[in-house]
Write a structure and sequence with these properties.
three-stranded antiparallel sheet, alpha+beta, 2 helices
């Protein structure tokens, strides 16, 4: 019995190790992918999101930050501030996650 359980735990440990290594490699590749090109892809996507919010929500300003995640994903987050007369009203949050699909399109 002991040999059977030792083999099972060894197999499980190997599978978990392979999955962790794959996640680390994938996060490194994601980081490289979003920093590639003459202008970083994440900066381009950030500009697109900010422009879309500016076009659809007048008097709304947003400052975005981004983090790459595993599985070719990227997360955008930030605070939105609305301009009402001379006053700025805050308290709005923006959170979005995107994943890179074929042909560099975001889903």
């Amino acid at each position: 019995m002991r040999g059977k359980w030792r083999a099972r735990t060894g197999s499980i440990g190997g599978v978990i190790g392979i999955l962790l290594a794959a996640m680390i490699i994938n996060s490194i590749l994601s980081s490289i992918n979003y920093r590639a090109g003459t202008r970083e892809k994440r900066e381009v996507y950030k500009d697109v999101i900010e422009s879309a919010i500016a076009a659809t929500r007048p008097n709304m300003n947003i400052r975005l930050n981004s983090n790459t995640s595993s599985l070719l994903g990227i997360k955008y987050y930030g605070d939105m501030v609305k301009q009402v007369g001379d006053e700025r009203v805050g308290g709005y949050e923006y959170n979005d996650a995107a994943r890179l699909a074929k042909n560099d399109r975001l889903e």
